Amino acid sequence: MRRTLLSIAMLVVPVIAPAAAPRTEARTVAVMLDDWYDAADKGDGPRYFSRFTDDAVFLGTDPEERWTISAFRAAYEHYFDGHHAWTYVARQRHVFFSPDGRTGWFDEKLVSPKYGELRATGVVVRSHGAWKIAQYNLTIPIPNAVVPKLVEILKPPR
């Protein structure tokens, strides 16, 4: 009987373990992102900027905002002077991984007291045992019914 149970356990454990790993890694990425948002909320620049890879890109809500992390830091580090920088709280998040588990990507719905509902997507990579943000894209979702009016407003003058 013991041998039978042991044999079954040896067959079942390898099937269960791979399924648990992505969930664990997804949770690790979620904790890192939540901590990153918390660092912004508390104005903790060193903690906030440490979450990026050295070659990260930050895409902001403005059409001209495509920042290398060094340019983003230079432009926005003064917001992180120990006071509140900005607040984003994740309300829904999906995290996925490449087959080798070294690259992940996420999409999430955020809420901000200043901007209301936001959406973010990003790419994370495993670097020296920690997940780092390689690309982040922050957007303001626009209902389809409002798009024609918004396009008119944003259209350059003739």
Please characterize this protein's 3D structure.
Strands 2-1-6-5-4-3 form a 6-stranded mixed sheet. The relative contact order is 0.14. The protein has a single domain (2-154), classed as Roll (Nuclear Transport Factor 2, Chain: A). The chain is of the alpha+beta class and 158 residues long. β1 (52-59) and β2 form a beta hairpin. It has helices at residues 2-42, 45-49, 69-76, 147-154; strands spanning 52-59, 66-68, 89-97, 103-112, 116-127, 130-139. It is globular. 39% of the residues lie in helices and 33% in strands.
Concise summary:
This protein is α+β, with helices and mostly antiparallel strands and 158 residues long. It contains four helices and six strands, in the order ααββαββββα. Residues 4-20 have low confidence and may be disordered.
Strand coverage percent: 25-35%
Low-confidence stretches: 4-20
Instruction: Please write the string of helix (H) and strand (E) elements.
Output: HHEEHEEEEH
Number of helices: 4
Mean pLDDT: 87
Helix-residue proportion: 25-40%
Taking Cα atoms only, what radius of gyration do you get, to the nearest Å? 20 Å
Please name the CATH architecture: Roll
CATH class: Alpha Beta
How many strand segments? Answer: 6
The CATH topology is given as Nuclear Transport Factor 2, Chain: A
Largest sheet: 6 strands, mixed
